[in-house]
């Protein structure tokens, strides 16, 4: 098993920084959902990781901890992460994107 | 080379992979996108085989977001790490033989101008420090002296990262590398100085530590190359393998190097300033009011 980045929505949705989306060396890996925190009453959206593209470099962790100082990203084992975003479940909208969560090891459902 | 070239052949859309459909429906073609919007649209760059945490990949990704007209852009590259990512993008990529990239780009630029006339077609060369300052040095410099109108971007990782860590002209003096055990014997080449001497209209150094600055620099360089003359960007893109930087410390290293020896510099000719301010609304290059000039 291997490590991938996992973003805590509660911490991320409390701010509007989006720094991790700009510092990830992989394209379309850290995506941003403008409506992620809405049902929980958060003001902003949140970033999320399409884990099938994540190479586990942890650059986003450094950026979130040291530049943004939010400590919202942790590296977690792919089989321990629970339901998460995968590229095949991502849909793009007008200036936003969202993903149906699925288990990265077992697949959807 | 138009907004239509990524579209599906009628009836074949449903057979295309999801990434392709996303690119056609939610890609940046024909839209104005910026670095602050990444994560909400499908990027031109796709999955690539470059190392985890590579700063060069980050720079390439940001550059591709920053292209002013991605649908009218062709990238040219050569051997080296960079081409592994540059070629995995939804814009045409031309592979110049090692060192040939600026020669290939010269011909390509001239051909596109003959074929499309005034419609802007941008050619962007992205190659490593070895391809540009060592093996392709003559062609790079000669294309600048000939005032070929395209953008040259050096992905400067200060080493031959793809072949095991030999020193390049852009490696710093005394740097010990796996294949340079005695340390480099001469100074880092002053490519910026040479770019200015040979007549580049826009020259800048940048570190991917600041994505918005990368975006701004790339946009200016590509726009200047359309009408005024050659533009050159030298980007510090560390090799975390050959310089043994832990992947999560790559941005920390970029920050240190930026403050130490790779400060942001920008050189722009008066002609290019006038062009950018008049055609593209760059307010910082507008002529200063008479009162402000007197104060200085």
How is this structure best described in words?
- The complex is a heterodimer of chains A (109) and B (296).
- With 109 residues, chain A is α+β, with helices and mostly antiparallel strands.
- Chain A has a single domain (3-99), classed as 2-Layer Sandwich (Alpha-Beta Plaits), CATH 3.30.70.
- Helices cover 17% and strands 24% of the residues of chain A.
- Chain A has three helices and six strands; from the N terminus they run E-H-H-E-E-H-E-E-E.
- Chain A has helices at residues 9-12, 19-23, 59-67; strands at residues 3-7, 30-33, 46-49, 73-77, 90-93, 96-99.
- Chain A is globular and about 35 Å long.
- The mean pLDDT of chain A is 91.
- Chain B has helices spanning 18-26, 55-66, 82-86, 101-116, 129-134, 137-145, 191-197, 211-227, 250-260, 270-280, 290-295, and strands at residues 73-77, 93-95, 122-128, 151-156, 202-206, 231-236, 265-268.
- In chain B, helix 2 packs across helix 8 (211-227).
- The model of chain B has no long low-confidence stretch (mean pLDDT 93).
- The A-B interface holds A 18, 21-28, 30-32, 34, 47, 53, 55-59, 61-63, 66-67, 87-88, 90, 92, 95-97 and B 18-19, 22, 25-26, 35-48, 50, 52-55, 57-58, 61-62, 64, 211, 247-252.
In short:
The complex is a heterodimer of chains A (109) and B (296). Chain A is of the alpha+beta class.
């Amino acid at each position: 098993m291997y490590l991938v980045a996992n973003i805590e929505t509660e911490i991320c949705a409390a701010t509007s920084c989006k720094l991790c989306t700009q510092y990830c060396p992989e394209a379309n890996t850290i995506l941003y959902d403008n409506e992620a925190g809405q049902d929980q009453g958060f003001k902003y959206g949140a970033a999320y990781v399409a884990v099938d593209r994540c190479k586990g470099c942890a650059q986003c962790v450094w950026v979130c901890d040291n530049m943004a100082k939010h400590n919202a990203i942790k590296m977690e084992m792919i089989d321990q992460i629970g339901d998460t975003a995968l590229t095949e479940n991502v849909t793009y909208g007008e200036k936003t994107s969202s993903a149906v969560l699925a288990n990265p090891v077992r697949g959807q459902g | 080379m138009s907004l239509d070239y990524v579209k599906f052949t009628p009836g074949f859309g449903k057979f295309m992979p999801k990434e392709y459909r996303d690119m056609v429906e939610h890609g940046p073609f024909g839209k104005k996108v910026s670095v602050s919007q990444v994560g909400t649209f499908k990027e031109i760059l796709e999955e690539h085989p470059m190392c985890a945490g590579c700063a060069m990949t980050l720079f390439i990704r940001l550059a591709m977001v920053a292209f002013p007209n991605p649908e009218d852009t062709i990238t040219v590259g050569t051997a080296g790490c960079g081409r592994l990512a540059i070629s995995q993008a939804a814009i045409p990529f031309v592979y110049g033989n090692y060192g040939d990239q600026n020669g290939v780009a010269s011909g390509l630029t001239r051909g596109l101008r003959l074929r499309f006339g005034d419609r802007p077609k941008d050619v962007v060369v992205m190659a490593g420090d070895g391809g540009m300052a060592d093996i392709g040095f003559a062609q790079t410099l000669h294309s600048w002296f000939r005032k070929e109108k395209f953008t040259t971007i050096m992905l400067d990782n200060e080493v031959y990262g793809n072949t095991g860590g030999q020193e390049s002209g852009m490696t710093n003096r005394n740097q010990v590398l796996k294949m340079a055990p005695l340390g480099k014997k001469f100074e880092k080449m002053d490519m910026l100085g040479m770019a200015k001497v040979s007549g580049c209209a826009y020259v800048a150094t940048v570190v991917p530590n600041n994505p918005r600055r990368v975006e701004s620099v790339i946009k200016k360089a590509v726009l200047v190359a359309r009408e005024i003359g050659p533009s050159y960007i030298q980007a510090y893109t560390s090799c975390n393998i050959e310089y043994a930087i832990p992947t999560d410390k790559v941005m920390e290293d970029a920050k240190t190097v930026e403050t130490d020896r790779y400060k942001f510099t920008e050189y722009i000719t008066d002609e290019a300033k006038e062009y950018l301010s008049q055609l593209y609304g760059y307010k910082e290059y507008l002529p200063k009011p008479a009162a402000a000039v007197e104060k200085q």
